[in-house]
C-alpha cells in the first residue's frame, strides 16, 4: 500500500482489519498457497505496482539490446513508472474503502516502490547512456538512498507526529515516488533525441577513470533529499 498510508489506513481499532487472520494464514505450515490466500485486495494492487517496475526494468534492458534509435522499448520503460504510481495510490484507497489493513502491505509497498521508483529510473538512466563506472556508482547510491528511505519509514511511521485522523503529519525526506520528476525529464530527453552520446551536459573527464555524465548528479541530489532527516514535507 502507499508508503504514506500503509499503516494508517483509518481502520478502527475495534477491528484489526483482518490482521490476525492474515497472521494465522502466513504462519500456517500447511497449504502451498496459504500465502496467496492471506493477501488482501489492496496487496494484489500493490503487486501491480511491482509488476510495472519490473516491466520498466526489462524494457530498459530490451532497449540496450536493440537499435539505439528505436525508442519504443525505452518509451515503454518510462511509461510503466507512472502506471506504478497509479497502483501505488490506488492500493491505499482500496484498503480504506474495504477497512482492511495488511501486515504484508507495508512491506510489499516498500519493495514495490523500490523497484518502480528506485531501480527502474536507474535502469532507464543506464539505458539512455549513463554507463561509465562512476555513473554506475552514483546510480547505485541513488537506489540505496531509496532503499534506506523506505526502511526508515517502516521503522519510524509509528512514532511520527499524527493528526486527528491518525495520519502522519509530514514526510521525513522526499517520498520515493517523487523520483518520477527525473523520469519525466528523461522522457523529455528522449523526445528531443538527447540520448547516449548526446545526453545534456555531455561527459566529464572523458578517457579517465573518473569520467561521468553530469546528468547523473540529478539522481545523487534526489537520493540525498530522500534520506534527509531535517526535510519535513507536510502531507496533503
UniProtKB/TrEMBL annotation:
<comment type="pathway">
    <text>Phospholipid metabolism; phosphatidylethanolamine biosynthesis; phosphatidylethanolamine from CDP-diacylglycerol: step 1/2.</text>
</comment>
<dbReference type="InterPro" id="IPR050324">
    <property type="entry name" value="CDP-alcohol_PTase-I"/>
</dbReference>
<feature type="transmembrane region" description="Helical">
    <location>
        <begin position="71"/>
        <end position="90"/>
    </location>
</feature>
<dbReference type="GO" id="GO:0006659">
    <property type="term" value="P:phosphatidylserine biosynthetic process"/>
</dbReference>
<keyword id="KW-0443">Lipid metabolism</keyword>
<dbReference type="InterPro" id="IPR043130">
    <property type="entry name" value="CDP-OH_PTrfase_TM_dom"/>
</dbReference>
<feature type="compositionally biased region" description="Polar residues">
    <location>
        <begin position="1"/>
        <end position="10"/>
    </location>
</feature>
<dbReference type="InterPro" id="IPR000462">
    <property type="entry name" value="CDP-OH_P_trans"/>
</dbReference>
<keyword id="KW-1208">Phospholipid metabolism</keyword>
<comment type="similarity">
    <text>Belongs to the CDP-alcohol phosphatidyltransferase class-I family.</text>
</comment>
<dbReference type="InterPro" id="IPR016271">
    <property type="entry name" value="CDP-diaglyc--ser_O-PTrfase_fun"/>
</dbReference>
<keyword id="KW-0812">Transmembrane</keyword>
<comment type="pathway">
    <text>Lipid metabolism.</text>
</comment>
<dbReference type="GO" id="GO:0005789">
    <property type="term" value="C:endoplasmic reticulum membrane"/>
</dbReference>
<feature type="transmembrane region" description="Helical">
    <location>
        <begin position="111"/>
        <end position="130"/>
    </location>
</feature>
<dbReference type="GO" id="GO:0003882">
    <property type="term" value="F:CDP-diacylglycerol-serine O-phosphatidyltransferase activity"/>
</dbReference>
<keyword id="KW-0472">Membrane</keyword>
<keyword id="KW-0594">Phospholipid biosynthesis</keyword>
<feature type="region of interest" description="Disordered">
    <location>
        <begin position="1"/>
        <end position="20"/>
    </location>
</feature>
<dbReference type="GO" id="GO:0006646">
    <property type="term" value="P:phosphatidylethanolamine biosynthetic process"/>
</dbReference>
<keyword id="KW-0256">Endoplasmic reticulum</keyword>
<protein>
    <recommendedName>
        <fullName>CDP-diacylglycerol--serine O-phosphatidyltransferase</fullName>
        <ecNumber>2.7.8.8</ecNumber>
    </recommendedName>
</protein>
<feature type="transmembrane region" description="Helical">
    <location>
        <begin position="136"/>
        <end position="155"/>
    </location>
</feature>
<keyword id="KW-0808">Transferase</keyword>
<keyword id="KW-0444">Lipid biosynthesis</keyword>
<keyword id="KW-1133">Transmembrane helix</keyword>
<dbReference type="InterPro" id="IPR048254">
    <property type="entry name" value="CDP_ALCOHOL_P_TRANSF_CS"/>
</dbReference>
<dbReference type="InterPro" id="IPR004533">
    <property type="entry name" value="CDP-diaglyc--ser_O-PTrfase"/>
</dbReference>
<dbReference type="Pfam" id="PF01066">
    <property type="entry name" value="CDP-OH_P_transf"/>
</dbReference>
